[in-house]
Design goal:
The structure is a single chain. The protein is α/β, with parallel strands linked by helices. It has two domains: 143 residues, 3-Layer(aba) Sandwich (Rossmann fold), CATH 3.40.50; 104 residues, Up-down Bundle (Four Helix Bundle (Hemerythrin (Met), subunit A)). It contains ten helices and eight strands. Helix 1 packs antiparallel against helix 7, helix 2 packs parallel to helix 3 and helix 8 runs antiparallel to helix 9.
Length: 280
């Protein structure tokens, strides 16, 4: 009920290390990030940490609505494709609660016309996943209230990735860590979260095939597509992209013929991660 719900997770990023090209900090700003897969939330948390904002995270459209009932946000980053309630419906309902809050769409399906589609549906902007650090900075500079931005006087430069000897088959660790700001500790935490997400999605995808719920199937492989790309597992991400496209187009024969192989590759990747990373 309104007034009693709380965000599923919150983080004071002022304690986290700076590791991007952030040109300002905003300790009095509050941002809500919404995504149905925790890997992407962990990535976002790491990318936002240099700005020292107060960041809340939640995994569903309904969770974001509950959060807006409780707190006043300066910006909401909203995933587009989510189970039960997608980002468009969630943004529409949020605008009825707080018409002033800017809502930015997060999407792994950026194609011509994407920006126009989101603007027509009440979003103020959109950001492609995996998130580009420079584009994120431009977006935050634009939408975080100017009076809450403390501008850095020195030139901010990206830090070179700290990952040097991590060798996980199926993952480009250098590119993956660079995409989240270069900090080894944050990247290792993201890998740990991806491991747990992957285990959950394997069972969920199997259930979707058993029940022939292809709409939910598409949502799950879509989430894995962006999460895998975020950690540098580009081959697996491409496989998920092909399955997502086939499911969305109604090519269920392709889905049935190729999902087992995809899940086997995902299982192998998760095993490789667990052999090299401490899973929390």
């Amino acid at each position: 009920m309104a007034g009693k719900a709380v965000p599923e997770h919150n983080s004071d990023t002022s304690t986290m290390p700076e590791h991007s090209i952030a040109k300002f900090t905003a300790p009095n700003a509050r941002v809500l990030v919404v995504d149905d897969i925790r890997t992407n939330l962990t990535v976002a948390e790491g990318l936002l940490s240099p700005y020292k904002m107060r960041v809340d995270l939640c995994t569903s459209g309904q969770g974001s609505i509950d959060a807006v009932h409780v707190k006043k946000y300066d910006l909401i980053l909203m995933d587009h494709m989510m189970p039960k309630m997608d980002g468009i419906e969630a943004a529409e309902r949020i605008k009825k609660i707080d018409s002033d809050v800017p809502v930015v769409a997060l999407t792994a399906n950026a194609v011509p016309g994407t920006r126009e589609m989101f603007l027509e549906n009440g979003f103020c902007d959109f950001l492609s996943k995996p998130v580009d650090i420079a584009k994120l900075n431009i977006l935050l500079e634009k939408w975080i209230p100017k009076e809450k931005q403390i501008i850095h006087t020195e030139s901010a430069k990206p830090v070179e990735p700290e990952i040097s000897d991590l060798n996980i088959e199926g993952i480009d660790a250098k590119k993956g860590s660079a995409a989240v700001g270069g900090k080894a500790d944050i990247y290792m935490r993201i890998l740990s979260v991806f491991y747990k997400d992957g285990k959950e999605r394997i069972e969920q995808i199997k259930q979707c095939l058993e029940t022939e719920d292809y709409n939910l199937y598409v949502t799950h492989v879509h989430s894995l597509k962006s999460a895998a790309a975020s950690i540098g597992a580009f081959t697996l991400s491409q496989e998920a992209k092909e399955l997502e496209h086939a499911g969305a187009q109604g090519n269920y024969d392709f889905v049935k013929a190729n999902t087992d192989g995809f899940l086997e590759n995902l299982e192998k990747l998760l095993q490789n991660i667990s052999d090299n990373v401490s899973i929390d």
